[in-house]
Design brief:
By secondary structure, the chain is mainly α. The protein has one domain. The protein is built from 6 helices and no strands. The chain has helices at 5-25, 31-50, 63-81, 87-107, 122-142, 164-184.
């Protein structure tokens, strides 16, 4: 992606760590948790690779079309699976955003916008609004609820890979990463 190297490497680290945690979540005993974690691991690692600063590595021209194909497939899968749950619609938007960014990088691997004119293209602006709202909602969901009664028994606590607040934090970090990447498109 375009932009300074230091924030780019921080974004790479954030996305790679999130992808690694999502891989660990794939060991869950819950089938839906495993599938969501697999989708999120693909997104985390894909974002990490895409966020590598251009000053460190300039990928060959075939990389961006390959990204579009991989994440296009992920978008089709998310569309198919969205019949069973609305969370998969977010995966669809995320995969479509990755296809969009890959297409922008294909058309202009070294410059900012390849769309002509000034300002933010309409699709980029819409995606920025979506992910900003998603980050805000995800952040609010992580806030502790005062007076919430929880079980203190260790036996009833979920395994660390099945904890819903860690999955939400994972999704929040990927939403923040997507915002950062869209700002540099």
């Amino acid at each position: 992606m375009h932009g300074p190297a230091s924030p780019g490497w921080l974004l790479v680290a954030l996305c790679a760590a999130t992808g690694a945690y999502c891989l660990l979540r794939m060991r869950s005993s819950d089938e839906t948790q495993r599938r969501a974690a697999g989708d999120e691991a693909l997104m985390g690692f894909g974002m990490a690779v895409m966020a590598v600063p251009g000053s460190a590595f300039t990928p060959p021209a075939w990389v961006w079309p390959a990204y579009a194909v991989v994440f296009g497939g992920a978008a089709l899968r998310a569309l198919w699976v969205a019949r069973s749950g609305t969370h998969h619609l977010h995966h669809l938007v995320g995969a479509a955003a990755m296809v969009y960014m890959a297409a922008v990088m294909t058309s202009s691997p070294t410059a900012g916008h390849a769309h002509g004119g000034s300002g933010v293209p309409l699709l980029t602006g819409g995606l920025l609004l979506y992910f900003a709202a998603y980050v805000l909602v995800s952040g609010v969901q992580l806030l502790p609820v005062a007076g919430a009664a929880g079980s203190t028994a260790a036996a009833s606590a979920p395994a660390w890979g099945d904890r819903p607040e860690l999955a939400r934090a994972c999704r929040l970090s990927m939403g923040i990463g997507m915002l950062a990447m869209l700002l540099t498109v």
